[in-house]
Amino acid sequence: MEEFSLISSQKKFNAFEAPEKHYVNLNELLSYPEKYANKVNLNGFIVVKDVFNIETINKLRNNYYNLFSDEYEFKNNCWNQIKDPEDPHGYGNHPVKNFLKSKEFLSFVNNSQLKKIASILLGSKKALLSKRILVRSFSSCSTFTTKAHRDQEYYVSSDSSKAITAWIPIGPADKNHGQLIYLENSQKFSFSDKSKKNKVDRIISSDLSQLAFKKSSRWLIPEINIGDILFHSLLTVHASFESTLRVPRLSCDLRFAASKNYEDPRWNSHWYGEDGL
Length: 277
Ligand SMILES: O=C(O)CCC(=O)C(=O)O
Known about the structure:
Mean pLDDT: 94
Shape: globular
CATH superfamily: q2cbj1_9rhob like domain
CATH architecture: Sandwich
Helix content: 10-25%
Radius of gyration: 18 Å
Oligomer: single chain
Bound molecules: 2-oxoglutaric acid
C-alpha cells in the first residue's frame, strides 16, 4: 500500500492509500441499497464513485472562480490562484457566502441523486439536507489546513449514527491539490465530548503524526476523482493537508440527517463566517 509524506499545520506526517472497502460504485450502491445502509458508520468513510459528470462540476467551478477575477486566472486550461484573498475562502467574511445562495449552487446541492445516495447510506426515506453548507478553496498560497476533528463536535445530533457528512470536490482533489484524510478506525475510538467548548477548542489535534501514534492508527488518503463524493460519519476523525499547487482545491461539505429528529437545528440557516458554529 503506497505511503505519502504530507504536511499539515506545518508538521510532516504520513498517509496511506485507503483500502478497497472504502469505495463503492454508484450503480452498485443503487442496486443493493440494503448492503450500504450502515456502511459509513461501519467503515468511517466511503467514496461513492462517478456521481456527477465533469461538465456539471466544471460549470460550478467556473461560476465560483469567475466571482474572484482579481484572485484567480484561467490559464493553461485550469484556474490558478494569483493573489491571496484578504479572508481565506470559506472563513470569516469572505463573499463565498453569496455563492452559497446562488441558483446554480442550490440546484447542485439539492440534486435528487445526491439525496437518494444519502438516504441509502442513512437507511432512511426521510433523509434531509441541512441548509448550512460550507465551500472552501485552498491552494499553495495558503498554509491553513483543517486540523484533526470530528464533525459531531460541530453538528450535534441526538444520535451521531443518524447523520453523515458529504464532502464534494468541485475540481481536482488529491495529494498535491489537497483533500480530506481520515484517521483509520477512528469512528470506534473514544474522545472527550468537546461540543460545548469554543469553536477553536473543539479540535482534537494539529499534530497528525502524534495523534496517529497515540491512537495506534494511521492516516488514510482516499483516491477521489472529479465526480466522486466522500461521505464520513460524525465520529470519524479527519483533517486536511497543505496543497503544493496554485491550482486550488475547491470543495463543499454538506450534512444529511436521517430525519428531522436527528438534525442539528442550528444548521438550518445559510453559512456565514461569523455564525459561531
Ligand atoms: O474541507 C476541509 O478542509 C474541511 C471539511 C470538513 O472538515 C468536513 O467536511 O467535515
